[in-house]
């Protein structure tokens, strides 16, 4: 199953620009240091519960994030592989964390999506995402650039 991209007048695919992929574990009492020690993976971002000066107003959840953005690669498949490979290797531990009350996880793909641009996920990528059993959130920025 692939999510088809639209094509420009030359027939070239129009992907999202500047994509970023994050695996996010969060919870109202989540201790990101505990998650790091438990999974044995260093996050790219983490913050304890309480006001998040970098997040939206009112966000109180603790967050542990393993991400890959345009500074590493702009190729969405490479970003997914970078994020999913260590998480898949520890999927049993991830599911143990998610069994704790109030702890949840998502995989978030964001990027700039100009007129009708779409992302493309291969069948293998969709299968990898489905096997994790974690919701996929697509977060396009539709603002003019």
From TrEMBL:
Q: Enumerate the InterPro entries for this protein.
A: DUF4279
Q: What is the protein name for this chain? A: DUF4279 domain-containing protein
Which species does this protein come from? Answer: Streptomyces solincola
